Amino acid sequence: MKSLQGLLIIIVGFFVVLIGLPSLLVLPFASPPSSTTQQNEQSPPQEKSAQENVKDTTESIQVAVYRSEKETIDTLPLEQYLVGVVAAEMPADFEMEALKAQALAARTYTVKQLLAEEVIGVPEGADMTDTVMHQVYYDDAQLRNNWGAAYDEKHQKIQQAVNSTQGQILTFDDAPITASFFSTSNGYTENSEDYWANAFPYLRSVESPWDTESPKFKEVNRIPIEEFEAKLNVALPGDGTVGTIVSRTDGKRVAEVNINGKVMSGRDVREQLNLRSTDFEWRRVGQDIELSTKGYGHGVGMSQYGANGMAEVGKTYKDIVTYYYHDIDVTTMAPFVAQMKAEHKLVDSSTAK
Fold first, then answer.
1. Could you identify which of 7, 100, 195, 309 might form a hypothetical disulfide with 317, taking C-beta atoms 3.0 to 4.6 angstroms apart as the criterion?
2. Contacts 24+ apart (CB under 8 A), 71-76
């Protein structure tokens, strides 16, 4: 019996050694975790730290917005303010990349305004208004009222566009640009000096063919002759004509007109007649002047419907902004934080909620 037990022990031991032998051979030569694996395991905390740094930087900046209807000033964190601007300035059903481009333009405009030594067109204590004089801004109550049942979905989408570009601005020669934007082009954008007084090297005329899909691309309306003459302070010629369009800009808009000897700029005609754009044609129809316009807005900088058209064909937000703004860089706003002038723009990030 003992010899049988001993034999069994020997057989079991043999099989244990046989099964364990491959592990014994492999383990001594197995490689330790590679440095790449260790770095990958450590990278999430590093990325999170970088994101937190950007968040701390942006949340340290406050924007004082003059609420024109209430005649009060609301002060809120920059990124929260931008959600209200993007939501007011661009339809929430636009493509995500277009919304990101809008967030970038709005943030750049805001930073430039905060850096300005003199704030124009706002009451004391405010940085900007909530109107087209600066940037249109809606607070949360207004967005809930405008969007109704779609509030959660649309707000989340706008928030994502702002968050995904957090801290990014557009610069030219290491300074924030004048990031102007408008609704719809006539097929081209405008050189800045053809509408405003100053020529900016990054605000150059470019083709914008996507805008033809905009519901605001064309408009035709009529104005009684008496109203037309009164608003422009002109007397129409007696030959049944309106006037002569003397010249057009690189952006195909009206530069100058001559109405019975009175020379005016296309911008003056647009503003005094409240036209959608400076790309217009006119003719007499009975006792009225019929005006046909293309585009909507001043035409300088980024076309919003053009941005959406670019996004629909697969362009990214960086593709969009570098197309509409020449030779600019997409960079961080961090170097400009220390330059903020007013004390109320810089606060402890823990209180900026």
1. 100
2. 73/123, 73/125, 73/126, 74/139, 75/344
Q: Where are the alpha helices (DSSP H) in the chain?
A: 2-26, 35-59, 78-89, 96-115, 140-147, 151-163, 225-232, 266-273, 304-312, 317-324
Contact 275, 291 (CB under 8 A): yes
| C-alpha atoms less than 13 angstroms from C-alpha of 84 in its C-beta half-sphere | 24
- In three-state form (DSSP H/G/I as H, E/B as E, the rest C), the secondary structure along 12-79 is HHHHHHHHHHHHHHHHHHCCCCCHHHHHHHHHHHHHHHHHHHHHHHHHCEEEEEEECCCCEEEEEEHH
Instruction: Please give the backbone phi and psi of residue 24, each rounded to the nearest 5 degrees, phi first.
Output: -65, -35
| Interatomic CA distance for residues 300 and 134, integer angstroms | 15
Q: How many residues does the chain have?
A: 353
Residue 281 identity = E
| Among 170, 239, 233, CA closest to 200 | 170
Partners of 62 in the β-ladder = 77
Helix 78-89 crosses helix 35-59 at what angle (to 10 degrees)? 80
**What would the two tokens of residue 93 be?**
């059903």
User: Per-residue pLDDT for the chain (353 aa), expressed as one digit of tens each?
Assistant: 444 444 444 444 444 433 343 333 333 333 333 333 333 334 444 544 444 555 556 667 899 999 999 999 999 999 999 999 999 999 999 999 999 999 999 999 999 999 987 778 888 889 999 999 999 999 999 999 999 999 999 999 999 999 999 999 999 999 999 999 999 999 999 999 999 999 999 999 999 999 999 999 999 999 999 999 999 999 999 899 999 999 999 999 999 999 999 999 999 999 999 999 999 999 999 999 999 999 999 999 999 999 999 999 999 999 999 999 999 999 999 999 887 644 444 444 333 33
Q: Show the tokens assigned to 203.
A: 């605000």
